[in-house]
């Protein structure tokens, strides 16, 4: 026999659990408003509210037949963990590698991804960040339309598949971060509104009604989301969570949801005796996100830094459309400001937003609280063709970008395949089983980009299987030119970051940057080292601020001469002075 409990305040008079064809009545639980519970045989199960259709358990740990099917219990204590010596690792001082399970390999499973972990060890990264793995309709998708936020997508390998991946990573000394989505659920397979007030019309987001974090019933909703987050960290031994689009978590309560969540994660870290952390995606440019709770902040350990990305992207590509316009007027100046101060928009005017945006990032010594990157799933997949910059830029220019990321005061992050300049795109793909939703997504994607001048037929169809197949990494590329040369450069930079502590120093106040916008060169002072890049077409003599002692590493033509380093176009050098 098994115990079944469910929060279903919307049920007027009756809740039953259906197990193996039998129906079993649940009773209201005394002292627990809206909760129903009882005992019934163990097995695949579903709940019925007031005689309605069978629904999956909101706290289901497994959905073997997809988001709409019955739930299946999981005994987390039964998994045979082997990496029992793993005690975690802190985020500061580490390098993160973002990957999507479904396109990291042709098989698209946790087990197949685990077979490639040795590549990441040899590369020199410290954490693997998995894009969302909760169930969603169909077989493949980005994961941000997931439902059942306590469960694991079955085609990837289900709960045990995720545990095998985490175990394999820990056995190789790699930590694991999981991307989780609390700001919305997908449009198909979301049964939560039938159970209770999980959403509220008080606030609205790009996905419709907001998750209920501050309206009546929000205590249980917050507990539901926090319980899910803790389950990943506890039951799956995940080391940290990346929180998607936290600016869409609208909460006017005195204690913000993020503050409450960070407090509970810290308690679990103490209980399990290993470092656990949270990383936020936020476009608010407020230091409150990563300020400790004791100082009045929300206590999130780090956040993605789109300002640094946008400035670097503009400097490398010259693009100026959309939000890049704020950075493209003087990209090297924008890049220098981001490196020195964390945020570019720190109360400055944003043409894209038509208003002032952000406030200064503080304290200056906490650069590790910002993740810096050249590419992410968003910055590739949200383009019309899902094209990587590696398909349009010369290898030397990519090497310049890599050096600026991997010697920055931030916590560096790479996106899968970036390290070898992957020629494969990473496009927006879906596998919606609802024909109406599939067509709406297809037309919406085309409409979005035709409004920006693209021909409708040029925009890949998200539902077309070829769109997915084009996005799968080609693992023959790292072994051939020019990809192998770039991969060696990434490995060298990651080794140097480990060996030379000054290259990873998170103190923004210690960073000095000189540049010549017209000539196209920039040099970053990192203690006794200089990271000099020349993005101009011709040779440049880049000042080092002192006599150069040694050329530590270079990609492209580089020669140290006195207090300058002579660089060819699209070249980069690390020089000791």
UniProtKB/TrEMBL annotation:
Its main location: cytoplasm. This is Malto-oligosyltrehalose trehalohydrolase. The record marks 378 as: Transition state stabilizer. Pathway: Glycan biosynthesis; trehalose biosynthesis. It comes from Streptomyces sp. Y1. Its EC number is 3.2.1.141. It comes from the Bacteria. One of its GO terms (cellular component) is cytoplasm. The lineage of its organism: Bacteria, Bacillati, Actinomycetota, Actinomycetes, Kitasatosporales. The active site is at residues 244, 281. Gene3D superfamilies: E-set domains of sugar-utilizing enzymes, Glycosidases, Immunoglobulins. GO terms for molecular function: 4-alpha-D-(1->4)-alpha-D-glucanotrehalose trehalohydrolase activity. One of its GO terms (biological process) is trehalose biosynthetic process. The keyword Thylakoid does not apply. Substrate binds at residues 242-247, 306-310, 377-382.
């Amino acid at each position: 026999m098994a115990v079944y409990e469910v929060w279903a305040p919307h049920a007027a008079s009756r809740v039953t659990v259906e197990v193996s064809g039998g129906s079993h009545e649940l009773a209201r639980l005394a002292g627990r408003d809206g909760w129903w519970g009882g005992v019934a045989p163990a097995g695949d199960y579903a709940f019925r509210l007031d005689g309605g259709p069978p629904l999956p358990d909101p706290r289901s740990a497994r959905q073997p037949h997809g988001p709409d099917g019955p739930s299946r219990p999981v005994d987390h204590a039964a998994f045979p963990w082997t990496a029992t010596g793993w005690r975690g690792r802190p985020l500061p001082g580490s390098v993160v590698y973002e990957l999507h399970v479904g396109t990291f390999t042709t098989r698209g499973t946790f087990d197949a991804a685990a077979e490639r972990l040795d590549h990441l060890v040899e590369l020199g990264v410290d954490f693997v960040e998995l894009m969302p793995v909760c169930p969603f309709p169909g077989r493949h998708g980005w994961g941000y339309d997931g439902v059942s936020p306590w469960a694991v997508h079955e085609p990837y390998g289900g709960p045990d598949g995720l545990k095998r991946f985490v175990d394999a990573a820990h056995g190789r000394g790699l930590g694991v971060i999981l991307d989780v989505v609390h700001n919305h659920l997908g449009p198909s397979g979301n049964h939560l509104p039938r159970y209770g007030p999980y959403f509220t019309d008080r606030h609205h987001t790009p996905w419709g009604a907001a998750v209920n974090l501050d309206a009546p019933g929000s205590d249980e909703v917050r507990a539901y989301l926090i319980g899910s987050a803790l389950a990943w960290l506890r039951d799956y031994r995940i080391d940290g969570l990346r929180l998607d689009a936290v600016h869409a978590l609208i909460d006017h309560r005195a204690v913000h949801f993020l503050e409450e969540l960070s407090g509970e994660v810290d308690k679990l870290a103490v209980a399990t005796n290993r470092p656990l952390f949270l990383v936020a995606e936020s476009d608010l440019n407020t230091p409150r996100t990563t300020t400790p709770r004791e100082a009045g902040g929300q206590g999130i350990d780090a956040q993605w830094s789109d300002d640094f990305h946008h400035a670097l992207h503009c400097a490398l590509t010259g693009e100026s459309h959309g939000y890049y316009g704020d950075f493209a007027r003087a990209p090297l100046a924008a890049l220098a400001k981001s490196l020195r101060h964390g945020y570019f928009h720190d109360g400055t005017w944003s043409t894209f937003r038509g208003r002032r945006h952000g406030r200064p990032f503080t304290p200056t010594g906490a650069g590790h609280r910002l993740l810096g990157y050249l590419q992410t799933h968003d910055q590739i997949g949200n383009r019309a063709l899902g094209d990587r910059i590696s398909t349009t830029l010369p290898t030397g220019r990519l090497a310049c970008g890599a050096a600026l990321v991997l010697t920055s005061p931030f916590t560096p992050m790479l996106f899968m395949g970036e390290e070898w300049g992957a020629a494969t795109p990473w496009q927006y793909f879906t596998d919606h089983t609802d024909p109406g939703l599939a067509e709406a997504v297809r037309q919406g994607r085309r409409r979005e980009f035709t409004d920006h001048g693209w021909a409708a037929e040029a925009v890949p169809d998200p539902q077309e299987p070829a769109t997915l197949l084009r996005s799968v990494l080609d693992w023959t590329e790292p072994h051939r030119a020019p990809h192998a040369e770039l991969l060696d450069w990434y490995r060298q930079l990651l080794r140097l970051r480990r060996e030379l502590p000054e290259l990873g120093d998170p103190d923004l106040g210690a960073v000095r940057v000189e540049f010549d916008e017209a000539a196209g060169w920039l040099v970053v002072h990192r203690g006794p080292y200089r990271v000099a890049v020349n993005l101009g077409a011709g040779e440049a003599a880049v000042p080092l601020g002192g006599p150069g002692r040694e050329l530590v590493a270079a990609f492209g033509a580089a020669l140290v001469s006195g207090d300058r380093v002579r660089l060819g176009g699209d070249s980069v050098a690390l020089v000791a002075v």
